[in-house]
Amino acid sequence: MKVKGVILCGGEGKRLRPLTYYFQKTMIPIGSKQKPLLEYIVKLFKHNNIRDLVLLVGYKSKQIRNYFEDGSRFGVKIEYIEDPPGKRGSGHALLNAYKEGYFTDASDLIIYYGDILSDINLIELMKTHNNHNASATLAIAKRYQVPVGVAEMDGSIVKGLVEKPWLNLKVTIGILALAIDTMEILDNVAEGKAEVDIMGDLIPTIIDKGMKVVGYEHDGFWYDVGTTEKYEKLDNHLIDKLFENLLT
Q1: How far is CA 123 from the centre of its chain?
Q2: Which of 19, 152, 206, 232 could bridge across to 160 with cysteines, CB 3.0–4.6 Å?
Q3: Do 8 and 42 touch, CB atoms closer than 8 A?
Q4: Residue 34 domain-assigned?
């Protein structure tokens, strides 16, 4: 069985404006070496021995193409496909690649949202996916940090404040495995719709059909770089430490 990596790189990154007036959101520099975010993702796939990648591109795609070219400089093979005109959302981008024949030799896909930084073990994610014979396997974090302060109250009286607490919530982190036969379901879901989302439309449909969707709990690092505030608060020294082996 062959696994293909699919990276979503087409969005305009409106939450990262004004930076994304000049950068494709996956090309924003991070870490002390100021490498593009997307380079960390590409090298994570390589580190996990997934070297056949399809990049779904759109907005400012030339920045990505010019930097990564065919991927050989990074030890991977990269193919590009432009998002379909007049259609919005990750679902349409993925379906377009499927219909254009980019996944004909794949049994499963690992979908990676291009504004997520993580040290996730993609090999273990796929093992979980295969062991359960799942239609979809979602990477799940065991807890979530609230981005604002939380008040502890007794009636109308504030008894205390907790600054940005961690909650024991199992949250999806924008990384998932999909069996290739789910693309036919995506085709049905997308029919007649101008905008389709993988997590918001496809996964709930798969669940409703009684197909197996499992969670792979990731205990390590993950960070959504998708807003200006989150980007400004990214600890570059921590990134250097966590991903030192990845960039060598």
Answers
A1: 16
A2: 152
A3: no
A4: yes
Confirm whether 166 is domain-assigned: no
Distance in angstroms (rounded) separating the CA atoms of residues 155 and 175: 40
pLDDT tens string for the chain (248 positions)? 689 999 999 887 788 788 788 888 899 898 888 889 999 999 999 999 999 999 999 888 899 999 999 999 999 999 999 888 878 888 898 999 999 888 988 889 999 999 888 989 999 999 999 999 999 999 998 866 666 777 788 777 787 777 776 666 778 888 999 999 999 999 988 888 888 889 889 999 999 999 999 999 998 888 888 788 888 888 888 888 888 877 66
Query: Residue 225: which CATH number?
Result: 3.90.550.10
Overall number of domains in the chain: 1
**DSSP one-letter code for 64:** H
